[in-house]
Design brief:
Blueprint lengths: L1 E7 L4 H14 L4 E5 L4 E5 L4 H10 L3 E7 L9
Antiparallel strand pairs: 1-3, 1-4, 2-3
């Protein structure tokens, strides 16, 4: 399932890596695309939305919106 998160607090490539790694700790096969400019994180994963949201929150970032079943797109960083 593809899930789009709106995430606050990301400002650099370290943030991209931290969010990506946090998600991949729960699903090593997850496809993660992060767009720093928009604060958008698109994840293609079999994990539940709540698990992925908690992973992002635990990494120190704030998820402000979630949309499930979105089309993949954006820029992988």
């Amino acid at each position: 399932m593809t899930i789009e998160f709106k995430v606050n607090g990301m400002s650099c490539q370290h943030c991209v890596a931290a969010v990506t790694n946090a998600i991949r700790e729960h699903d090593a096969a997850a496809q993660v695309q992060v767009d720093l400019a928009s604060g958008r994180v698109v994840v293609d994963s079999a994990q539940p939305v709540d698990t992925l949201k908690a992973a992002i929150d635990d990494a120190g970032y704030t998820v402000t919106a979630v949309a499930s079943g979105t089309a993949t797109g954006g820029t992988a960083r």
